[in-house]
Amino acid sequence: MEFMSVGERLALLRAEMARHGLDAWVLPSSDPHNSEYMPLRWKVRQYMSGFTASVSTMVVLKDAAYVWADGRYWQQAERELHGTDIQIVYLGKPDVLPWNQWLAEALPEGSKLGFYGATMMVKALADIEPLLQQKHISLHVEHDLMNAVWTDRPDFPMDAVFAHDLKFAGERASQKLQKIRDEMRKVKAQAHVLNALDDIGYVLNLRGNDVQTSPYFHAYLVVTELTATLFAHVERFSETLKTSLAEQDVNLQPYDTFFTSLGSLKSLNVWVDPAQSNMQTFFALRQQGAHLIEKRAPSIFMKAVKNAVEIEHWRHCFVRDGMAMVKFLRWFYDNVGTGQLTERIVSNRIDGERAKLELFRGLSFTSIPAYGPNAAMMHYGLKEGEETLVKPEGFFLLDSGGQYDDGTTDITRTFVCGPTTEEQQRHYTLVLKGMLRLSAAIFMHGTRGLQLDILARQALWNEGVNYACGTGHGVGFFNNVHEGPHSIGIGLIDQAIVPGMVVTNEPGVYLPDRYGIRIENILLCQNHNTTEHGQFYKFETLTLCPIDTRVVQKELLGKEETMYLNNYHAHVWEKLSPHLTGEDLSFLQNACEPL
After folding, report:
1. Taking 80 as the threshold, does the pLDDT of residue 316 lie above it?
2. What gap in Å lies between CA 203 and CA 193, rounded to an integer?
3. Which CATH number fits domain 162-303: 1.20.1250.20, 3.90.79.20, 3.40.50.300, 3.40.350.10?
4. For residue 546, what are the contacts with CB-CB under 8 A and spacing of at least 6?
5. DSSP notation for 209-270
6. Which stretch, 49-53, 122-126, 532-536, has highest mean pLDDT?
7. Taking Cα atoms as reference points, which of 151, 148, 125 lies closest to residue 138?
8. Domain map of the chain by residue range?
């Protein structure tokens, strides 16, 4: 197809809007399953705007277009939307409304609002439904206008679905389905509809390759008291997988029959998660007279609390991933002074080291190699045709991770490339200080991530510095690298952190046009002790990789923080040294020297 500019694409979309009599069209950053990472087919907002952020919403009116970008993407939005007529809405700034509230207030009475119902999550419009009704704003959700605008739109991926071996998963699909049914009985649900692909893959111990970084496949799952029905592209399943599913009372049906099949749930009590379900699912169920029980899916908490088998395999996974990181680090520091490295060369090197590892299935996200000012963009990404030279000065930030049969990894390190300023050294130390404080936390049963977040930020806040993103997110087990329901951040997520949950620990400093710093490990929540005051928990650091300490201002670290750092490096040495030789081993020994 001949290349079209953003303006030409918007003109085609507006022509389709006019044909359907629509005043506004919304392009979310979601597929029918609310997936964070999606195949190209569903990246409609990116196609229409050229804005490549993973999270954003675009609203197109007859005479204007807007993109909502949160603090992680402000600089990226300014760069990628430059030269277009699309206006940036800086979500997070004072008095800036989210797209749905703004739209409900801005649209005139009697307007016609359109979007494709299968890609709009129910929760996105729940808060504004009363205002829409009050203003007689009608919703039009049955048509996907992008099919007419994006004429060479990619089809569904069709790689084979494969099993996640029980020796890694630790629990059969039939056992997980039974747990779901136990929860269904508690709320008197006769059926449960799952839309989320990572939940479906987890429950059934199945994985796919629909996106490069997340091992899932397109599907819906309906669980009833006696059976479960998986709606997927049947041709992707081997006879062995079909037999295995049948043995666990899971029926396999074509993906495109899902919405019509909901007629079989007529008049039943159906459990649906409004945060994960698309509007077309809700509309179909309501048309059948189903009574909807709107509640968080039980599989979300189930997959967040890792079982003993998953945790033990994960520890082995971090050893291998740590070996790859050490080999990469030794290479990086050997070559950074040559002035020949670029961000792309660095990215290719770490990706190549991971690809050599046993049980490797791919990256857990596209590696983020960022030198100097580029690191100030929290989700910076390489662009084709652009090369940034890594100079032997300042900082280089690398955020990377891998997918393996026995776990998922996510690690960020900030490397000292050469001479640094006193300010850079101070900020680096304060980031490290916050990371160590959170790592060493002891906390009571019932503690939320909001209550722990201050440990990571306090040293920075004391200096009047903050970072406009969360401190930590859950991580899936050979699943999505970003996983709920828990997190650590300044927003209230009403989910306690409990033993078996893993969470990242990644405070940072991001100074536009100057530099960025982030240090990230993955933590596992464990039991600590029980006293007369209650149950207490602690964290085990799973990530195994040295932290550059050459610019640490030691006087800023407390005695306990220094001890924790030294103990961590001793642990890294103990776990990784038996697997390394020669220059890699010598590098590790030097990198793990105590402060």
Report:
1. yes
2. 13
3. 3.40.350.10
4. 326, 329, 569, 572, 588, 591, 592
5. -SSSSS----EEEEEESS-EEEEE-GGGS-HHHHHHHHHTTEEEEEGGGHHHHGGGGTTSEE
6. 532-536
7. 125
8. 6-149, 162-303, 305-591
Q: What is the pLDDT of residue 1?
A: 44
**Percentage of the chain lying above the pLDDT 70 cut:** 100
pLDDT one-digit tens code per residue, 364-380: 999 999 999 999 988 78
Spatial CB neighbours of 316, under 8 Å, sequence gap ≥ 6? 406
The token pair that represents 22 in the structure block: 């629509």
Identity (one letter) of the amino acid at 27? L
Residue 29 structure tokens:
């950053």
Task: Count H helices and E strands in the chain, helices first.
Answer: 20, 28
What does the pLDDT read at residue 395?
A: 97
Give the list of residues 6+ apart from residue 581 with CB closer than 8 angstroms, or none.
none
In this prediction, what percent of the chain has a pLDDT beyond 90?
Answer: 90
Question: Which residues on adjacent β-strands are paired with residue 413?
Answer: 398
- CATH code reported for the domain at 6-149: 3.40.350.10
Place of tokens 């495109």: 256
